[in-house]
Amino acid sequence: MRSLPASLKQMTDVTSLAFLFIAFLTGIAGALQTPTLSLFLTTEVQTRPVLVGLFYTGSAIIGIIISQMIASYSDKSGDRKMLIIRCCLFGALGCILYAFNRNYFLLLTVGVVLSTFGSTATPQLFALAREHADKTGREAVMFSSILRAQISLAWVIGPPLAFALALGFGFKTMYFSAAIAFVLCSVVVWYALPSMPKAKQASNTPVQAPRQNRQSVLLLFIVSSLMWTCNGMYIINMPLYLISELQLPEKLAGVMMGTAAGLEIPVMLIAGYYAQRLGKRKLMHYAIVAGLLFYIGLFFFTSPWILLILQLLNAVFIGILAGIGMLYFQDLMPGQAGAATTLFTNTVRVGWIVAGSLAGTVAEIWSFHAVFYIAAAMCLAATLCLLKIKVA
């Protein structure tokens, strides 16, 4: 296995730096929108908690359909570079719609479709990065881990900035800032990323179906979906929980998300470095244990300082899942980088489907705090599924 310094040296050419910068920009665009969405729907669109949850569920379902169509096309004959550009431009249009429109159903239809294209730029970027790493002889695990760390870096800055812009200048300014990030991303992609068009395949077999390790892929899909569901319920309910039940400052939610994202960066790099030595399945076990301890901690502690300290466990939970989970899918689906990456991304969307339904319903019937009990139970279920995966 190559040393960490050697792997980092490979990140210094122009193309690799462009990949890192684009990952950061797409991360910023997402980090400006996602943390404040439940607050936006509650205060600006003035919806009930159950409709907030329905919005997340609907957007996730639409996201799965669109992203799988794009993944199938990209693995067969698409040029990922042009797909990323188009996705970023559609994402910018979605941000503009959110800036001016306050109609719930228009946002749930047109707005979600445009936003889905914007979010699909990220898995296509990772798929192109994997192909670029394989073609140029880079160590794919470390390259992807460093790339994913850029998104975490964006989430260090994004959530506090999002709450500052939304609360200080209004949601219109916040969404305009996200649109600018998308447009700038498309420009950098056009000038700096390699174009790797694929020859059209004669076979009509769906490329997105796993060709190998189908049972392991299915189990990993369930594990990742459960873990992302926990995270989704936390992101949806946490800002409202802090404000409505704990009566804590609104900006604390952004600080907590930024703290977790900052801690994710070293977690991802360390996990990427030790992935070959320890195995991806064992690292995923560590992540689930950290997540279980995190949600148990939320049962008992409400002090702002302790909530910030608990973000270390949250960072291990999400840092390993986001960095190693995607690579695990790619290892189980060799030759299907786009489909594997999008399949992993769709576990995020499945997580949002379940999280949206549960978070809104549980909050309306019981409380925002009750969601954390469900998250802990899902961590236990994820552990049982992970134990059945035979491929490490």
TrEMBL record:
Taxonomic superkingdom: Bacteria
Lineage: Bacteria, Pseudomonadati, Pseudomonadota, Gammaproteobacteria, Enterobacterales
Subcellular locations according to the entry: Cell inner membrane
Domain spans labelled Major facilitator superfamily (MFS) profile: 11-392
Any one of the GO CC terms: plasma membrane
GO biological process, one term: cellular response to glucose-phosphate stress
Any Pfam family hit: MFS_1
InterPro entries: MFS, MFS_dom, MFS_trans_sf, Sugar_efflux
SUPFAM superfamilies to which the protein is assigned, alphabetical: MFS general substrate transporter (SSF103473)
GO-annotated molecular function: carbohydrate:proton symporter activity
Keywords, comma-separated and alphabetical: Cell inner membrane, Cell membrane, Membrane, Sugar transport, Transmembrane, Transmembrane helix, Transport
Protein's recorded name: Sugar efflux transporter
